[in-house]
Amino acid sequence: MKSIFIAFDQAYTERIIDLLTRMNCRGFSMVEQLQGRGTNKGEPHYGNHAWPSMCSGILTVVEDTSVDPLLEALHKMDVAKERLGLRAFVWNVEKTI
What does pTM read for this prediction? Predict the structure, then answer.
């Protein structure tokens, strides 16, 4: 199994939850307000007067076979609106209870 952390502009929230549902990624945890700045493009998400937008994060654990299709769909979202910001990171899951 793999864990996937998805950091994204809050404008993506419903689309990402819908994507996880369509791809049978039922379990996830979400943090609604994160601050951050991407490494390449896009604008900072600080929630202040200069940079008012915020980002969110979702952590989900999926079967290995679900990783590539999910990352591909997320990449398509990111490419369509690069300035919003969307990143996904994958880690191995050693054990679960």
Answer: 0.90
* CA–CA dist 8, 11 (Å, integer): 8
Nearest to 54 by CA among 38, 36, 39, 42: 36
Domains of the chain: 2-92 (3.30.70.120)
**CA distances for 60 relative to 43, 47, 49, 54, angstroms:** 25, 25, 32, 20
In sequence order, the β-bridge partners of residue 56 are 8
pLDDT tens digits along 7-53? 999 999 999 999 999 999 999 999 999 888 777 766 788 888 888 88
Measuring CA to CA, which residue among 1, 32, 23, 3 is closest to residue 74?
23
pLDDT in tens, 62-71: 999 999 999 9
